[in-house]
Amino acid sequence: MTDAERASGEGWDRVAEAIRGRMAETRMTQMDVASRARLSLTTIRELQNNLNPRRRRPQTLAAVSDALGWPSDYLDHVLHGESPEPHEDEVRDPVLHALDCLGQEIQELRDRVEQIEYQLAAEDETL
User: Fold this and answer.
1) 26 and 80 inside one domain
2) Cα–Cα distance between 99 and 39 in angstroms, integer?
3) Nearest of 72, 68, 67 to residue 85 by alpha carbon
4) Which segments does the entry list as coiled coil (predicted)?
5) Model confidence over 109-126: pLDDT tens digits?
6) Cβ–Cβ under 8 Å, residues 48 and 94
7) What's the CA gap between 77 and 85, in Å, rounded?
8) Cβ(30)–Cβ(41) under 8 Å?
9) What tens digit of pLDDT does each residue of 1-22 get?
10) pTM of the model
11) Total structural domains in the chain?
């Protein structure tokens, strides 16, 4: 496998991960995305699960990006390993900001609990 083929495979992995994550965030189904993007359910399934990775028309990725509420070029940036910018509305959305803050706090709490568990385990071993 050449470097270009490997990078391309990794790019499609990133696209699939982005689609799965966004569908989970928005609670959209494959059928919802297919309908909004005006693409076949098979195409959405292939992209979401990185089945049959191959070159796609730019319009396909743009349609899926739009259907998921992203700027049209979002998934193209993901495919090429670039850091896409979030949609303008997402940047200013107070609910999304609050969710991000909660996610960070939850991760901090998980880290603290894990640290406490390690300390307790270490104390148990010394007894």
Assistant:
1) yes
2) 31
3) 72
4) 99-126
5) 999 999 999 899 988 888
6) no
7) 9
8) yes
9) 334 444 456 899 999 999 999 9
10) 0.63
11) 2
Distance CA 113, CA 96 (A): 26
- Beta-carbon neighbour count of residue 74 at 10 Å? 24
Task: For residues 45-57, give the mean pLDDT.
Answer: 89
Do residue 78 and residue 97 come from a single domain?
no
* CB atoms closer than 10 angstroms to residue 78: 23
Asked if residue 65 and residue 13 are part of one domain, the reply reads: yes
**Same structural domain for residues 56 and 27?**
yes
Same domain? For 72 and 48 the reply is yes
Whether residues 80 and 97 fall in one domain: no
Contact of 108 with 121, CB cutoff 8 Å: no
Domain that holds residue 66: 3-84
Output the six-digit token pair for 105: 């706090």
